Amino acid sequence: MFDAINNVVTTVNGVVWGWPMIILLLGTHVFMTFRTGFIQRHSIGKGIKLSVTKDPEAEGEVSQFGALTTALAATIGTGNIIGVGTAIAMGGPGAVLWIWLSGVFGIATKYSESLIAVKYRVKTEDGRMQGGAFYALERGLNMKWLGMLFAILAGLASFGIGCATQVNAIATVANENFNIPPLAVGIVIAALTAFVIFGGIKSIANVCEKLVPFMAVFYVLGCLIILGMNYDFIIPAIATICRLAFTPGAAAGGLVGTGILMAMRFGIARGLFSNESGMGSAPIAAAAAQTRNPVRQALVSSTGTFWDTVVVCLMTGLVLVTTIMKNPNINADEVSDGGILTSLAFGQIPVLGPLILTLGIITFAYSTILGWAYYGERCVEYFAGRFGKGVLIGYRCLYIAVAVIAPVVALDLVWLIADTLNAFMAVPNLIAVLLLSNEIVRETKKYINNLDMKDETPVPVIKSKK
Questions:
Q1: Does the pLDDT of residue 129 top 60, yes or no?
Q2: Domains of the chain: total
Q3: pLDDT per residue as tens digits for the range 251-261
Q4: Which N-terminal residues, if any, form the signal peptide (predicted)?
């Protein structure tokens, strides 16, 4: 019975994350890039500057930087480390170029979905800001039923891809490297998570503001050290990545390019999964930001895709490809396993290499747990009828319980279900982005050259049911 269910879920997952979803997501990325007048040219410069600019007088719960790091906490995960290796193993080194391109174009979609999240956000009676695809669909398109569907799918996915799989990754690393019992890891992670998430978005944002920059800088420094050791192979690696993104061929040892179709499929799929542009998750955090107008926060949010994919995933890809080219005797079995391939790359740094990789996986996974806890809360509060804090306490307790048991259960099926839910939740969000594209263009033209202008539109207050 279990095998039958697993086979069905596997088949469905393969379909939903196949070419139709890739075309839908990448098509939206390209479409919104043109509709916004190549917003990327503003995101990198203005967005990064705004992300570290405080605007305490603006309406919102947390700073723009706090909202960004909360979204990055959920976005930058083990997929940035091991996932890139898997893309290279399945699609060849050319997949790295398609990962990068999906990030470049994905900036426009992340900008767009964050803009409508802020534009259509609401405020609770106790002053909490809420927004995301559900309110954009409800208030912008009068499609509450579709907003409800998005909230249900995202809320369920938070337990799997946001919590269970991440705790399991931490437990596996801790057990393999330090012989710590998995259950003990689950209890510790659950306690640390409870301490943070019971403080709400402000508590989560405060932790993420400190954790995300540390973990990103620590990991990037490790990548730079490896690239420094492999400096002779950087230019050849870039040439190989570009060449094998379009043509089949071999680079070194077991490193093989399978042609444009496979490189595109696995590269784009991994890039989209990594940066979450179009999935509708990050805008939930963006809606809580202190911002004068929707465009201002949308620019800040769009930098998340830049850091996640254009920078971190690209560096990981270069590290892995230069490592294989430097060591042509690496066999095909090692190249075909993303985890082993990543371990071999970081093993080049004496003593500290495995430590950097281990700490990177642990911090990346834990930050994802925190970020998705907030996403799940907002989704549950929306589809549960806005019952107030009672429903939030119940969700948090269940989330923590999942963290405790995750290290000691088989997660293959959980991962597949959550992964499938992520694909399904992207569809309502992309409908909101595409159908509200005229509003996105209008708001962009209004504020892009007047970012200090304040949006005077009052934020509606919703009442909690008693």
A1: yes
A2: 1
A3: 554 455 556 66
A4: none
